[in-house]
Each structure stands twice: as structure tokens, then as C-alpha cells.
TrEMBL record:
The keyword NADP does not apply. Keywords: DNA-binding, Repressor, Transcription, Transcription regulation. It holds the Pfam family LacI. This is LacI family transcriptional regulator.
Length: 342
């Protein structure tokens, strides 16, 4: 049996094809009674509107795009989950792409989405104002996540990387550690840069005589493991280690456990992000909580506001707060204000 057409629905509902089109696409000029009859006829016939035809009428795809640097790992799965749940609540579909291999890869992904999406969420180290001018059509709404870009043309949603890192270093120092070693993230990553700045500022303020100790990393579990091995090879090991994200902290923890280092008795360890696995490793990971799914949801809501009211919704810049979650890897008790619910 062939699929039902719009003409079949019009015949079934005893109305014109134009009336069916207006009713199913949310247009005016159709009474409530007629609209109900049309929708019931479409349901009986299992009619599915042709997407391309609907796009021509509404000039909307009801699809939003998300460009991310990677799709692997708990951070990105949580971020996508938050975006997708918020999109579904608004009847929007989600098209996701990644930019593993640099700026040209990101540009190719953006060009591939043009004409297929009504707006874009962009999280990429390669995106600056010049890149956006070159690769985004004028008028296409976009919200940038964790970005240094400052432009009235784009919404920006950042997390408080600086403040979160500062607070964690202060927490470790207040616990009695005289210094904190930091495992940094990628040098070209905005989040990583802000977290390292927060580390350096907190050390300068609260431990001005301590030596800054920064190891290179790239946000991967492997980088954290490598950093952990480097620390173990020293004649004098640190008493507290703060990794710029949880995946590196987990890798570092693995290196410590291999040689029997007791965390936190021998070395206290902390991360950043509060990915789901953080509470399930042993010992559970002290971390800076980013409500990752909420980040995705908030970004989608900001983009949806621009789509629904493009004349009056002005792109804006927001920063989401972080909080310290004290778990076993840091030792000590839990401050009431940041007690984990797990």
C-alpha cells in the first residue's frame, strides 16, 4: 500500500489541500472544528507530512545542530543528553557533528549543516569571531558554549572555570596541604586556560610562598595516568593533586593505585566536571561540579528563545556557577553547602 498523500487527507476530511496544509503547519484561516477533522483524518490515514515540502512552507526545519569537539566520553554524552531532552520538549530534532581534526574539520561540519538546521550550538576550540564570520551565514542563530568570543551576534554560555578551579585549590589548602600540583588541560582550550588561571590565582593568594607545580595534560585519561607516573618518579611526591578534569584525575588515580599509593592518606586527589563515574571510582572523586546536562539544556533554551522570537530575543552572555563536591579522594568531611546527594 502506498503512503497517504496530502490529497488523500483533503479528500478524507472533505476540505481543500490548502486547508490541510494550513492546519497541519499551524497556520491560520482554519476553524477549530475543521482543524480537528483534518488532524483526525491524517491520523486515520497515517499521513506523514513531507519534510522538504513543510520546510518550503514554514521556512523551518525544526532541527538544531550541535558542533562538539568530540562525541566520546562522559562529559559529551551528558552534554548531548541535556541538549536532546530540552530539544525534544520543544518539538525540535537534534543533528550532532564533531570536529576532531582542527579548524577545517569544524568549518566543513558547519557548512554541511547549513540549510538543514534552524540554529546552532557550537563548542569548539577552533571557533573565534573571524571563523564564525567566514563559516556561518548571516542571520543563522547560534549559541557558543565555553567560548572567549565576545560578539553581540552570538549568545554565549560559559561555566565558571576560573572560579571553580580557584575554589578547589583553596579547599585543598584549607585542608592543610601546603601546596597543590596541577595537571593542566590542552593549551588551546578555553576551559583549560581558565582553570589554570584559577589555580595560579588561588595559589598566589593563599599559598604565596609555595612553588607552582604544573604538569602538561590534554583532558584524556591517558594524560592523567602519564602525569601520575611522572609524579611517582619524583623523590619528593606532592601531597595534593588537582587535575583539570575528572578523566585525567581517574587516570592519575589508576597510576597511584598500581604502586599502592593510598589516596587520600598519601596523596589527596581532585578533579573537575563531576562526570557520573566520579562518584563510583574507589575512592570516590572529590571534584568541581559542573551540571553538564543543565549546561546543554540551558544552551538549547537560549537558542530556542532566538528561534521563537528572532526580533526580540537578543543574544546574551551567561556564566553558570560551579560547586565543590567533597568526596573520599580528598579526605575529611563534607561541607554542608556542597554535600553530594549520591
Amino acid at each position: 500500500m502506498s503512503a497517504a498523500t496530502i490529497k488523500d487527507v483533503a479528500r478524507e476530511a472533505k476540505v481543500s489541500v490548502a486547508s490541510v496544509s494550513r492546519a497541519l503547519n499551524g497556520g491560520g484561516g482554519v476553524t477549530a472544528e475543521t482543524s480537528q477533522r483534518i488532524h483526525e483524518a491524517a491520523q486515520r490515514l497515517h499521513y506523514v507530512p513531507h519534510a522538504a515540502a513543510r520546510m518550503l512552507i514554514t521556512r523551518r526545519t525544526n532541527t538544531v545542530g550541535a558542533l562538539l569537539p568530540d562525541l566520546h566520553g562522559e562529559f559529551f554524552s551528558e552534554l548531548i543528553r541535556g541538549i536532546d531532552l530540552a530539544a525534544r520538549a520543544r518539538g525540535l530534532h537534534l543533528l550532532v557533528s564533531s570536529s576532531h581534526d582542527g579548524a577545517e574539520d569544524a568549518a566543513t561540519a558547519l557548512r554541511a549543516m547549513q540549510g538543514r538546521v534552524d540554529g546552532l550550538l557550537i563548542l569548539s576550540n577552533h571557533v573565534d569571531a573571524a571563523f564564525l564570520r567566514s563559516n556561518l551565514p548571516t542571520g543563522l542563530p547560534a549559541v557558543l558554549l565555553n567560548s572567549a568570543v565576545k560578539s553581540p551576534s552570538y549568545g554565549v554560555l560559559n561555566i565558571d572555570n576560573y572560579g571553580g578551579a580557584y575554589a578547589m585549590v583553596q579547599h585543598l589548602l584549607d585542608a592543610g596541604h601546603t601546596g597543590v600540583t596541577f595537571i593542566a588541560g590542552p593549551t588551546d582550550n578555553f576551559d583549560a586556560q581558565q582553570r589554570e588561571l584559577g589555580y595560579r590565582a588561588a595559589m598566589a593568594k593563599h599559598a604565596p610562598h609555595a612553588t607552582l607545580d604544573v604538569l602538561a595534560g590534554d583532558f584524556s585519561e591517558e594524560a592523567g595516568y602519564s602525569a601520575g607516573r611522572q609524579l611517582l618518579a619524583r623523590t619528593s611526591r606532592p601531597r595534593a593533586v588537582f587535575a583539570a578534569n575528572d578523566m585525567m584525575a581517574v587516570g592519575c588515580l589508576s597510576a597511584f593505585k598500581e604502586v599502592g599509593v593510598d589516596v587520600p592518606r598519601d596523596i589527596a586527589l581532585a578533579g573537575f566536571d563531576d562526570i557520573p563515574i566520579a562518584r563510583y571510582v574507589t575512592p570516590s572523586l572529590c571534584t568541581v561540579r559542573v551540571r553538564i546536562a543543565d549546561l546543554g539544556r540551558s544552551a538549547l533554551e537560549q537558542l530556542a528563545a532566538q528561534l521563537e522570537d528572532p526580533r526580540h530575543a537578543t543574544p546574551s552572555r551567561h556564566t553558570l556557577a560551579c560547586e565543590i563536591v567533597t568526596r573520599a579522594s580528598c579526605g575529611g568531611g563534607r561541607p554542608a553547602a556542597s554535600q553530594d546527594a549520591s
